[in-house]
Amino acid sequence: MNKYTFSRPSTNLFSDLSNLLVYKQESLDELIGYSFSKQSLIKQSLIKKSSFSIENRDLLTSVLKDQYLKVEENELVNNNIEKLNLSNTFTITTGHQLSLFTGPLFFIYKILNVIKLAKELSESNPEENYIPVFWLASEDHDFEEVQAVKLFNKELKWDTNQKGAVGRFDADDLKNLVEEFKGLFSRDLESEVHEVIKHYKGDTFAQATFNLVHQLFKDFGLVIIDADHKELKKSFSSILKKEINDEFSFKSVNETNQSLEDKKIKKQLTAREINLFYLTKGIRSRIKKVENQYIIDEVGEFSKEELISKIETHPERFSPNVVLRPLYQEVILPNICYVGGGGEIAYWIQLKKVFENVNIPFPILNVRNSIQIIDSNSSKKLDKLGLELEDIFKDVDELKKNHVLENSTTDIDFTGVDNYRDLLANNLKEKILNVNKGLEKYAESEIAKLSKQISNIQQKLIKTEKEKHDNSLKQIEQLKDKLFPDGKPQERVNNFFSLCSDGNVYSHLEELYHLIDPFEKDLIVLTQ
Question: Which of 145, 167, 278, 287 has the fewest CB atoms within 10 Å distance of its CB?
């Protein structure tokens, strides 16, 4: 593939806050601490080294070894887990919901980002080890967001009545979907994609996702962690109790929100008095404080003392929401950097005071690469239509209008007419006001009517000319639909396996890995 870059603001695909986090992160130092750079990452390593105990490392490696008993062994992964016992080993982490068949493309981009960043840091700072980690968001309960995936214009959808944490769903009825998936690659039953997808299984959806992600990335040394684990929650229990006793995260976020207002930055998340869910089979229910009682729908009503007692006996039943999940991650991992999308990173900037309240180092934040892939057929269409790469970011109506104007055999350029109209309008207004200054509103009204008539003529001629270019205009629409399905960036809709129509998997992963650059700020465009 050929690689090009475009500044994010020029594409109109990203929010102002997302662009700020990419290009001017240092302006937010008050909210995030160190801004993203190789030097800052090395400084962060020293901070984390002094705060992450040997006991924490022992627990982490013990849990990981247990979780990896159920997957195919890989020497590189095993070595990385062993390294986590060393005080000079740190993690670069990303995470995501348990999306069906890995969900949208950016699921893969995020993981490749942390793998590449960990490798580059290890090479530039060989005295330390940097391990790429993927955090399975197995406790999330927004099943509707992840139950379907688009592959080759076909929607694969998991219909199930299961409730609660998605990671705990019984994965047995995934079998039918896997067969549907395999049917899309039926030309070569011996191809890599079939070998990969046979690992998409397990007792739970979390285990099936763990297996699939491991199969895809094991040879890159990626370490996967499912933090829905009793011993890990136990290590977090003092903070769980503090949340019940002091409501510290609510107070911390609200304090930060004032700083956001001062900077005219819109807040991305709203903290609750208690930022925890209660987790049991089929239930992930928010803990709500009403006066001096704590209400958990479908479970019951408890006093503060009863809730604290439950934390002590069953910490695994308490699940952090979006406010506390990042803190949980940083408590159990020797992490120095979190990699995520612009929208995801945007809510982290509200959380630094939450970390400070419990003396946990706040990680460095990195907005992942965004990538637009232009397949060979689309590249040919661009050439045939006389379009440049930067044109793909323009509105489809603008593209169509420009195409008609540039390819019309009839001169329908209204620049000269517009100039005459402006001159006429000024002369008319001047003469009317010379006769009677009280006729100013009349003059403006009549001139507006004149301008509208000229505009109507222009639109009529353009529409007539468009009909002569009907085939080309349809190709422009089709091109935009393919590159921006449902009007969204391709990486938010299409699935990674849509790049694997030839049945190969690892060569496509390897190619993307080499093209990704964690220090690249601009949008990456790849053409075949």
Answer: 145
Q: Are 230 and 294 in contact (CB under 8 A)?
A: no
User: Would you say 156 and 101 are in contact if contact means Cβ atoms under 8 Å apart?
Assistant: yes
Q: Which of 227, 207, 220 is nearest to 330 (CA)?
A: 227
pLDDT tens figures, 87-125: 999 999 999 999 999 999 999 999 999 999 999 999 999
Residue matched to tokens 């896997």: 178
CB of 6 within 8 A of CB of 521?
Answer: no
Where are the strands (E) in 138-180, listed by range? 148-151, 154-157
Query: Measured between alpha carbons, how far is 89 from 80 in angstroms, rounded to an integer?
Result: 9
Q: What pLDDT sits at residue 452?
A: 87
Closest CA to 104 of 526, 486, 391: 486
At residue 287, φ and ψ (nearest 5 deg) are -85, 115
Distance CA 293, CA 176 (A): 45
- pLDDT at position 417: 75
Taking all residues of the chain, what is their mean pLDDT, rounded to a whole number? Answer: 93
Cα separation, 453 vs 424, in Å, equals 14
- For residue 257, the one-letter residue type is N
What's the full length of the chain, in residues?
528
302 DSSP β-pair partners:
294
Q: Check: CB of residue 339 under 8 Å from CB of residue 368.
A: yes
Helix locations, 368-414, DSSP H: 376-384, 396-407
| Whole-number pLDDT of residue 469 | 75
Instruction: Kindly list the domain boundaries of the chain, sorted by start residue.
Output: 2-236+321-370+506-527, 376-499
Q: Would you say 114 and 339 are in contact if contact means Cβ atoms under 8 Å apart?
A: yes
CA atoms within 13 A on the CB side of 323: 26
Q: Which residues, in sequence order, are CB contacts of 260 under 8 Å at separation 6+?
A: 31, 266, 267, 349, 350
Judge contact between 81 and 317, C-beta under 8 A: no
Question: What pTM does this model have?
Answer: 0.88
Alpha carbon separation from 189 to 397, 473, 499 (Å, rounded): 43, 39, 17
Q: Which DSSP symbol is given to 324?
A: T
